[in-house]
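Bumping with the actual sequence this time:
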Amino acid sequence: MLYFGPVLQLECVPNLSEGRRPEVVARLVEAVAVSTISKRVGLLDVSSDPDHNRTVLTLAGDADGLHAALLALYGEALATIDLTRHAGVHPRVGAVDVVPFVPLGETPMAAAVAAAERLGAAVAERFGLPVYLYEEAARHPGRRRLADVRRGGFENFAAKLRDPAWQPDFGPAHLHPTAGATVIGARFFLIAFNALLDTSDVTIARAVARQVRESNGGQPAVRAMGVYLPSRGRAQVSMNLVDYRRTSLWTALERVRREAAQLGAQVIETEVVGLLPEEAAAGALRESLQCPGLGPSSLLEHRLRA
């Protein structure tokens, strides 16, 4: 967790619809880096995936610094990403698809909501994008869940916009021709956690995802989908753990293993996209080792840092 003195601290995790062109990803990262030279903002992680065709950045800092960095990122994304030529297994409605703010330390959620609202207004005015607010920043009950806002994808979103119930929170009621729309919000920590199966049969991954996700009666605070990864010739269960306090990494993995085994498949590898809170990792370790007293304070490096 980062601290820069007595200022409000936020994490921001912009998701960009580009994961196959390293030179474009480099330009996006550079846009953020240049904008943050004199700002109290850190670029903590860059995760790209060619099958999802998506890049996730992790930033942390104060609200003003993040605002400047994100406006620079939007400018570069609109110049380099064309959704009419984009394809990938991950759902998306925008070049800058989703931008969540997460409060760190003692920062209240209200600060993350304010940052989301400020960015949404600025992005709509400067770039002419339709902006939707989600999760804690949502202004409409039907827009809290990202999946509900993004349903239909870029290709079908123009028709969605003709429905008065789906007028944007900021910006025009029509898609940007190449950058689509954007979704901005405030939320608790989310862990993107994927399980690779030993099969190429995507129907197995989809069946496992149905059993695991909360919306079908599975694990609390888990959202999941099954996809096929062409570059690896394998099926993947792609999960978002939206509250690791309700379902841990270990519990989610064990459920995936159990459901996959019933269909004759096994988990051969997992991955975390981006960063995760220390406590989430410690919780998974406690469960897997059956050691309830294990935590960050049990680790040598943690004591040395302290």
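The tokens above came from a reply further down the thread. Confidence is low (pLDDT under 50) at residues 1-6.
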